[in-house]
Amino acid sequence: MSNAITSGQSRVPKPLVIICALFFIFGFVTWANGTLIPFFKLSFGLSDIQAFLVTFASYMAYFFLALPSSWILKKIGFKNGIILGLIVLGIGSLLFIPAAQTRTFGLFLTGIFVQGAALALLQTASNPYLTIIGPIESAAKRISIAGICNKFAGIIVPFIMGTLFLKNASDIEKKIEVATGRAKEQLLNDVLGRVNMPYIVLAIVFCLFALVIKFTNLPEVNVEEDVVDEDNGAIVKHKSIFQFPHLFLGAFCIFVYVAAEVMAGDIIGVYGKALGISADISKYFTSLTLGSMLVGYIIGIIAIPKYISQQFALRICAILGLIFTIIAYLTSGYTSVIFIALLGLANSLMWPAIFPLGISHLGKFTKTGSAIMIMGIAGGAVWPLLYAFVKDHLHLDFQLSYFITVMPCYLFILYFAVRGHKVGLNLK
């Protein structure tokens, strides 16, 4: 294709702007789940495990839809894939309307799963695009730029959705507890009705952006090169994706990274409430986590690759994650919450570093490898449920439960940063 972008080309402004806008959308939809968890607990009287099905439905969609997404992209192309993903995202948002009218939690979960399916398609397209449209060594910088848009959306979500969904949450919770009969039914209907207008507006915005993409020139990415052996410069031919063990280690690293990110971002409100902090205050804690992530992204843009490599940045972040988790466990109250929020700083450069390291040297297998990496996002589905199970069924203190579920994530990320990203590759 004459307008295709090849690896290493530096002319990237327009694609980068479009991808950054997409990352803003990813962030807004994904981090809205952090507000929906306490909102559904309030509206349906759910346990923690039931409420965490919100993140399960969203992130598990990546596991099932990432590989089909890569096939769809091969058939219809990058641009049409984005358009399709945005339309499906709008459909998932509109499912919230009948879910609210019928007060059906399962239908809400279906809408969230459809949104997750759309995000799987959009993420499968956009992440390798960011990686390949410039030098692989600076991929973390480009992903960090897009990540700022993603996390900025996440920062404003609690203030927008939290204000709309959880206004006077403590008072409403008390009213629901004492209300009976038709009065309680009306109260619950009024609360759930708060989702209608926001998600109608979101559906309209997604479809309008799809229309913008339709009339925007976005060149395709062609990647056909094979791996070059660093020792002798010879071309190394590969016939199967399974000849790249570092890819699968990278996918599992994405799995535990997203698990850690969700535990720090979506679960922090529940964590704060368990410490006795009012729901009217704790609903904003996700913004603290994402604010610290934003600081980390800015550091990454400045430092990578000029001062440090993305591998070294990943090591630093993993070590910080271990330290902050330990301090959060050993403290209480707002101090503990602050160190959970600081995990955002530790997590900030993980995705920008893990993704390019995982798909490096894949050559013609890059698109399939990217889909396998995206499947790792399912970690966000599994880990909150694991945390709730450990806390509720093993009857452990919630801080100890948090500690023993999050620490292994950072330990594996540290391994991948030190050794895992080179397994199977003849790299110096």
How would you describe this protein?
It is a single chain. Helix 3 packs antiparallel against helix 4 (78-94), helix 7 crosses helix 17 (350-359) and helix 11 (245-265) packs antiparallel against helix 16. Helices cover 75% and strands 1% of the residues. The protein has one domain (13-422): Growth Hormone, Chain: A, CATH 1.20.1250. It has 20 helices and two strands. A two-stranded antiparallel sheet has the order 1-2. The protein has 428 residues and is mainly α. The model is unreliable at 1-11 and 228-232 (pLDDT under 50).
Defining traits:
20 helices, disordered N terminus, mainly alpha, 75% helix, two-stranded antiparallel sheet, globular, 428 residues, Growth Hormone, Chain: A
List the helices and strands and how they pair.
Layout: H1 13-44, H2 48-51, H3 53-76, H4 78-94, H5 96-102, H6 105-132, H7 139-165, H8 169-178, H9 181-192, H10 196-214, E1 227-228, E2 235-236, H11 245-265, H12 268-274, H13 279-282, H14 285-303, H15 310-330, H16 333-347, H17 350-359, H18 366-375, H19 379-393, H20 398-418
Helix pairs in contact: 1-6, 1-7, 3-4, 3-6, 3-18, 3-19, 4-6, 4-10, 5-6, 6-7, 6-18, 7-14, 7-17, 11-16, 11-17, 11-18, 11-19, 11-20, 14-16, 15-16, 15-17, 15-20, 19-20
Membrane topology: Multi-pass membrane protein
Transmembrane segments: 12-31, 51-73, 80-99, 105-122, 143-166, 197-215, 247-272, 284-305, 312-331, 337-359, 371-390, 402-418
Main location: membrane
